[in-house]
Write a structure and sequence with these properties.
This protein is an alpha/beta fold and 484 residues long. It has helices at 52-59, 73-82, 97-113, 126-135, 154-168, 183-202, 236-252, 274-279, 288-300, 396-411, 418-431, 458-467, 477-480; strands at residues 2-5, 9-12, 15-18, 21-25, 41-42, 45-49, 62-68, 88-93, 118-122, 141-142, 149-150, 172-175, 211-217, 221-225, 228-232, 270-273, 353-354, 377-383, 448-449, 472-475. It has one domain (2-483): Spore Coat Polysaccharide Biosynthesis Protein SpsA, Chain A (Alpha-Beta Complex), CATH 3.90.550. It starts with a strand and ends with a helix. Bound molecules: guanosine-5'-diphosphate and cobalt (II) ion. Cobalt (II) ion is lined by residues 177, 179, 390-391.
């Protein structure tokens, strides 16, 4: 693979987000003996070839998690066939029992025939729910009155997938949707993950311990209109979420950045170092991908001079990268942690922390500070060659729900200035009236946010899972390590 890279990036505290890279060649050829991360500049940009060895080294340590909810099994089958051989496949299904049986059978047959490893699990499996409760994350479990099970939602499936990848010992996790109609594009996404992760980890020799994330910007999202295929450059939900995410970024980087830096706010297809996946807080459902950016900024943006008397947080004293005015932080007044506004109104025993009730993570450092490990996160956005052909028949309600969930993460960010919130509220009122989680005045429900996955006790999780090993279908020794 060869990528065109640019030096343009936006830095907010320890978070570096690069302007979108492009795939130049799907395969950079055999002559690439060693990946050179700083090859010759062409028109101010650089093209970087990645050797097969460099890609392979990441793939061996990469688990690809496939969340699936009642997708056509023949389409899922194509997705599975697109995932490079050395990646571990983790299918996380929330499908109806009959559909799940078919999905699992396809996965097991395919992996047995091609001698590769995989794990299949169902989101509502009681053993998995018990493992989460025992290991310290009861918030993700619901329905204690009957059989406990993990809440519905894509974000929730992704959390389970990350835990399984961690138990198997993988260093990286990537996600691909199960409704992708083109196996070749899934293959390209995975190659982009490997090339991007390699680049992010090695492009700066001083970046010891950097955490990496790669977010895919698909080339286009085709739709059929009047019998013709139209290759739309942006999706309906992405367009909206990216716009508001860029508005927020503009506040964070003190209006120095571009207005379109974020092109992957909703990126369902993304990959990251597992260390980072364990640090991140995952949000429920379709809020999960936009919230990754919000959470990253909230934890690592650096400290903010808080002059707002209504904010009951100590003033931060570390080096400032930017300063927000008191009025800009008005939104802290919103921190009412009203669980009744959370998208899913479940019993209090299983509720989680709403985004806006969490304390800012950067508190004054006791003096003298111990040497801190690198906190740097490098986020790449990479545009693929393949279009993203997926199931477009999920309806307008699906798009609206996705928008509302995505926008709620921005609206409730503690960095969102009151002016931005007010404009966003008007937008929501005008465009998303009647959607779940949207009130009459355009107020968005607080998204459900889970504790960082790294807070789980993995030894306990494993032993509960082992006792309930029916929860998992496993092919391959590599995958079997989940229960060792
Ligand atoms: P879109 O492509 O952004 O419109 O989102 P999709 O509806 O296609 O969802 C992305 C992926 O997540 C698909 O593979 C879905 O089947 C899957 N998905 C959606 N909701 C759930 C869920 O509750 N659990 C699981 N396991 N997968 C889900
Ligand atoms: Co889809």
């Amino acid at each position: 693979m060869r990528l065109s890279t640019t030096l343009a990036s936006t830095r907010v505290g320890d978070v570096h987000i690069h302007e979108t890279f492009q795939v130049i060649e799907l395969d950079a050829g055999h002559q690439v003996e060693e990946t050179k991360l700083s090859s010759a500049a062409v028109d101010g940009s650089y093209t970087v070839p990645f050797s097969h060895q460099a890609i392979h080294a990441i793939e061996k340590e990469l688990a690809i998690i496939v969340p699936c909810k009642d997708e056509d099994v023949s389409i899922l089958d194509g997705v599975l066939h697109g995932i490079p051989h050395d990646c571990l496949i983790i299918l996380l299904s929330n499908s109806k029992p009959g559909n799940y049986a078919a999905e699992r059978a396809h996965l097991m047959d395919y992996c047995t025939a091609s001698q590769r490893s995989s794990i299949a699990a169902h989101q509502h499996d009681a053993g998995i729910a018990q493992a989460f409760i025992a290991a310290g994350m009861p918030q993700i479990v619901t329905d204690n009155r009957h059989t406990p099970h993990i809440r519905n939602g894509k974000g929730e499936a992704m959390i389970i997938g990350v835990v399984l990848a961690k138990l198997v010992g993988k260093r990286f996790v990537g996600f691909v949707d199960a409704d992708n109609l083109v196996a070749g594009s899934v293959h390209e996404y995975c190659k982009v993950y490997a090339a991007g992760l390699h680049y992010a980890l090695h492009c700066d020799k001083q970046d010891d311990g950097v955490r990496a994330m790669v977010r895919i910007k698909w080339n286009s999202k085709p739709k059929v209109q009047d019998g013709e295929i139209v290759f739309e450059k942006s999706g309906r939900s992405s367009r909206v979420v990216n716009h508001w995410m860029n508005r927020l970024l503009n506040v964070l980087d003190n209006h120095c950045g571009q207005t379109d830096m974020i092109q992957t706010g909703n990126a369902g297809e993304h990959a990251m170092s597992i260390d980072y996946a364990l640090e991140l807080k995952f949000a429920t459902g379709y809020a999960v991908e936009p919230y990754q950016l919000i959470d990253t900024w909230e934890r690592l943006a650096g400290s903010v001079a808080i002059d707002n008397p209504r904010v009951a947080e100590p003033r931060h004293t570390l080096a400032l990268n930017y300063t927000l005015k008191a009025a800009d932080l008005d939104n802290e007044a919103h921190n009412s942690s009203d669980e009744s506004t959370a998208a899913d109104s479940s019993p209090p025993s299983t509720t989680s922390t709403p985004a806006s009730s969490r304390r800012p993570s950067l508190l004054p450092c006791p003096s003298p500070c111990p040497p801190a490990p690198s906190r740097k996160v490098r986020i790449l956005q990479i545009q693929t060659r393949n279009p993203h052909f997926h199931d477009t028949g999920k309806g307008a309600d699906h798009i609206s729900k996705m928008q509302a969930e995505g926008l709620s993460t921005i609206y409730h960010s503690r960095f969102a200035p009151e002016t931005l919130k007010s404009e966003l509220r008007h937008y929501v009122q005008a465009n998303l009236a009647g959607v779940a989680g949207v009130s009459e005045d355009g107020e968005l429900a607080v998204p459900r946010i889970y504790p960082a996955i790294g807070t789980l006790d993995f030894a306990v999780f494993r032993s509960v899972l082992k006792a309930r090993s029916v929860a998992l279908q496993i092919v391959g020794e590599d995958a079997g390590a989940v229960l060792l």
